[in-house]
Amino acid sequence: MKNMIKLVVFDMAGTTIDEDNVVYKTLRKAINKEGYDFSLEKVLEHGAGKEKLQAIKDIIALEKALVDILKEADKIYNVFSNLLKMNYEKLDVKTYEGTVNVFQELKNQNIRVILNTGYNRKTASSLLAKLYWEQGVHYDLLVTADDVIKSRPHPDMILKAMQHYYVDDPSEVVKVGDSIIDIEEGQNAKCGITFGVTTGAHTKEQLASANPSYIINSLTEILEYL
To answer: What are the residue ranges spanned by the domains of the chain?
Structure first.
């Protein structure tokens, strides 16, 4: 397997980037402004890793009939977007320990480093800018929810990365993420290996429910398998 891997697809927030769950804290605040009282744990459980409008729909669907969701979700999303812009301007973003070294080691093995995310491209790019990460230097390709019709758990973002690098065999692709939906995305793309990492949204027990190939506590552990 080690010599077969061509792409490793990493989720961003909670996997490679530590932004202290500010997106989901902001999402919770925007939703609860509409009279809900969801805990952060509930928001993470039902929203982590998803395109954010879809996350809002799925969360409020826990308490509201489907017919009432769409209009309210759009309103909440607009509030969320404005709040997030303000929060990100003052946010101190950092990487998880060893992340850059992992990227470099993979690149030394001629393995492409792909970043993918349920964020839109503007949000993802603002995170990368704060870290001074550059495409072609720190990572090879960024694929966001804006770049596909169907976001997670659909495999479209991974398939787009495969198409970009002319990789036809999904067994040559690895997916790494901190949420159940990351793992489901990798499984739906038929990735050769899926990793759940416990640094972000979901606990070890929650990740285990999705049956990833491996559960790790630090990103650096993937080098033991690749």
So the answer is: 7-19+95-224, 22-89
SS3 state at 217: coil
CB 180 within 8 A of CB 206: yes
Q: Round to the nearest angstrom and report the end-to-end CA distance of the chain.
A: 7
Under 8 Å between Cβ of 138 and 100:
yes
**Residue with the two structure tokens 């489907």:** 66
| Residues 33-46 pLDDT 10s | 988 999 999 998 89
Would you say the pTM of this structure is higher than 0.70?
yes
pLDDT digits (tens, 9 = 90+) for 124-178: 998 899 899 999 999 999 999 899 999 889 999 999 999 999 999 999 999 999 9
Residue range 7-19+95-224 forms a domain whose CATH class is alpha beta
| CA-to-CA dists, residue 195 to 8, 32, 132, 139, angstroms | 10, 32, 26, 19
121, with CB counted inside 10 A (0-12, 13-18, 19+), is: middle
